[in-house]
Amino acid sequence: MIRTKKPDIFQKTSIRYTIFVYFTVSALVMILLVGMSLYGRLTAQLSATVQEENQAVINQVNLTVDSYLRTIMKLSDSLYYGVIKNADLSGEAETVNSEITLLYDNNKDSVSNIALLSKSGELLSAVPAARLKTGMDVTEEEWFKNTLKRPENLYFSMPHVQYIFDNGENQYRWVISLSRAVEITQGTSTDQGVLLIDIAYGSLQQLLDNAALGNAGYLYLVSGGGELIYHPKMQLIDAGLARENLAAACDYRDGNYQEVYEGKQRDVVVKSVGYTGWKLIGVTPKQGFTLNNLKTRLFMVFVAAFFVFLLALVNSYISSRITAPIQELEKSVNALEEGALDTQVYTGGSYEIQHLGRSIGDMAKRIQTLMEDIVAEHESKRKSEFDVLQSQINPHFLYNTLDIIVWMIENEQKQEAVKVVTALARFFRISLSKGKSIIMVRDELEHVRNYLMIQQTRFKNKFTYRIEAEPEILSFASLKLMLQPLVENAIYHGMEFMDGDGEILVKAAREKEMLMFTIADNGLGMTGEQVEGLLTGKTHTSSRRGSGIGVKNVNERIRLYFGEEYGLSIRSEPDEGTVIQIRLPAVEYQKLAEGEKP
Fold it and tell me: Domains of the chain, with CATH numbers?
């Protein structure tokens, strides 16, 4: 069906004339270009202003963090030079502990723990922590080793959960540890020890959380090795839901930089934090710049934007008259390209677009009709070929079966002859099935049971067989003459030349929404190449004594009637036998009673 549009003045206007008018009017867009140029200059000036402001913010935050850390360092000096260095821990332990407690109480807002450890890892004093955790050997910790290795330095750790002290409710407090080597006097001997101060991470985080860079800017803190100390999205980064350019942060020195990260351009300001070697980095995305603080220049931009707006209205109307019909037609063509041949093709716009739309619509209808005819003809032809093939009964099978019946009668084996005749009659009855291709599982299993009984008699009990099926699936739908060709191959090609007795198992079961048939034999088996050839048709398996229906044809019939997701799979090894599995949809036969195809 083709949509039509009411006639208007543009329907008989050519595309060439419309485009000419459009570009004539669009010459006025030069005003917009001037406004854009002015805006660009103002943006450049704003960018420089923002960089200066960010630099000032970074410097201020750096001073605050540096002052904060120096306060902690002064605390460590007071502990060492004012308390520990001149004290004899063997006789003044209580005095030392009380002085440490006093200093802790004065700084407990920013300090979580203060501890003094001997060179051997013994806890000499700890405030407020009571003792080391059971089994904790601090001498094996990297920070302890590094502190004793470089006694002249202060060592700052990365943020971590306090893990060496057993102090009740504070088990999971985040801290940054400051450690330094100290000289400990015990009686007449002196030795090295380690002074440990756990800085409360929350107090440092609060300093950085209060800093802001413009509308979308932020700052973060990294160590000299590029490890993240603070970031406003710390938890998201740890969880892998966000990322930061830490690799570049290691290479940056103090100063201003421009970088492109994850496709976005941004300005970066870097400042080192005093003694620690840490780097304070401020990031401001380009889109975070604002002109709100430049009122005078904003007025100029507003005037230019007003004229641009007027021009945009005019050009929008004119361009829509040109592009809207083309876009609508393009949508229709795209839908046709994707295979939706019944799409309503747009026929509005100028005369040329109307004519083109009608032509495309007529062409799509013809293509759809031809495709439907081809598909219907091809499917009908394939079904006819398979129906003719499945209706063929090889004369050799019939002659041999009749010879067996005659021989049984002549040898007065009338009961056995009756059984074979009955099986043969049932075999032909189900083979015909009033021309139906879809029958019940019960009938398909009965068909293969009659075939196996006849063949067992012909081959003088050279093989045995079992047929197993779950009772609840017997009323399900199955494809007629599906199992017999596969059993036939198992007899003629799997065990005809075997030395011992053959075994054939036919099994039917339901697995969720799938109906599974299994045909297993202990015959000669096949190689991987032969198995692949069976399904592709390169290996011909039908025998002149059998039905003439190959494995490939059975597989194609199943897919034709039920869909590409169903069919055969084969597992086989030479001298190990063969297992063939058939996958069908688990559908009640009554649901398909009125039609052959599910």
Answer: 1-84+294-378 (no CATH), 85-203 (3.30.450.20), 392-592 (3.30.565.10)
